[in-house]
Design brief:
With 285 residues, the chain is an all-beta fold. It has one helix and 24 strands. The strands form six sheets. Strands 1-24-23-22 form a four-stranded antiparallel β-sheet. A four-stranded antiparallel β-sheet has the order 2-3-4-5, with no helix packed on it. It has a four-stranded antiparallel β-sheet with strand order 6-7-8-9, with no helix packed on it.
């Protein structure tokens, strides 16, 4: 694919967790600590809510309630009547900042975490867990030994969850059981030189994967074949992507110069960029 990304919103600290919902692109400006929604046709942006604990993954329950991962205090929050309420405390099942999330059709939330201090060069890199918060607020570990579980998708039939292991260099799949548990762990794809961050699924069953270090957004088939590639400029890294727009064929990409919190807040150089692709989005998020 030769099309280039086109900036549609800039002046952000660090955009993450993009979601297409009710005609708008919702996202977390993580280091500015707010959840926002963009109307791409007009460029209008609404600040939905401020999140002191630093927002990341977003999703919705079947009743329309917005769920937000609060990274620093390791909580899952719900926005109810304009106020944030704690749904679950994840500190007992995580070892570092909570991160991205995917919410299934029943309202169960799957949440990853860093596992170690990403911005401390002296920190020992280690594997960690994927947590489940059920619609009843139960918290439990559904997978472990994951190397920085990050973006995740669930197939349209709800039967399969795929999560990117950023420091594992690949995508890992699980079967989703009726109670939300995960089984049948297997490698979905491994792409040499790529670092999977935010991901999204299309109607053909391929996954778009933002790879910051390699400055690529890759469309990958199960098994690892790279079907399409979009490159960012050399000074920008892509950290997450989402399919949306009127026809589901607009690929929105969150880019930044780096991910360091202080640098992002100082430069305010985060962007959302977009490009048109051939196959519309599917599944969740």
């Amino acid at each position: 694919m030769t099309s280039s990304l086109v900036p549609i919103l800039d002046g952000l600290a660090f955009a993450e967790g993009p979601r297409w919902h009710e005609g708008r692109l919702w996202f977390s400006d993580m280091h500015a600590r707010s959840v926002q929604a963009l109307e791409p046709a007009t460029g209008d942006v609404e600040i939905i809510v401020e999140v002191d604990g630093q927002p990341s993954g977003l999703g919705w329950r079947p009743d329309g309630t917005l769920l937000i991962v609060s990274m620093l205090d390791r909580q899952l929050l719900a926005l109810v009547d304009g106020d944030l309420r704690e749904v679950a405390d994840l500190s007992a099942v995580t070892t570092s900042h909570c991160n991205d999330m995917v919410v299934d059709g029943g309202g169960n939330a799957y949440i990853g975490n860093f596992g170690f201090d990403l911005h401390d060069p002296e920190a020992d890199q280690c594997t960690t867990t994927l947590a489940l918060v059920t619609v009843d607020g139960e918290v439990r570990v559904v997978a472990d030994d994951l190397f920085f579980p990050n973006g995740a998708v669930i197939t349209p039939d709800g039967s399969t969850l795929v999560v990117g292991e950023s420091f594992g260099g690949g995508l890992t799949a699980f079967d989703v059981e009726p109670d939300g548990s995960l089984s049948g762990r297997r490698e979905w794809a491994r792409v040499r030189g790529a670092v999977p961050d935010g991901i999204c699924l299309d109607r053909d069953g391929a996954i778009w994967m933002a790879s910051p270090i390699s400055h690529q957004v890759l469309r990958v088939a199960e098994g690892g074949e790279v079907l399409d590639e979009i490159r960012t400029s050399d000074e920008r890294q892509p950290f997450a992507c989402m399919l949306g727009g009127a026809d589901g064929t607009t690929l929105f990409v969150c880019t930044a110069i780096d991910s360091d919190p202080e640098s992002c807040r100082r430069q305010m150089a985060g962007r959302i960029e977009s490009v048109e692709v051939d196959v519309p989005g599917a599944g969740r998020p």
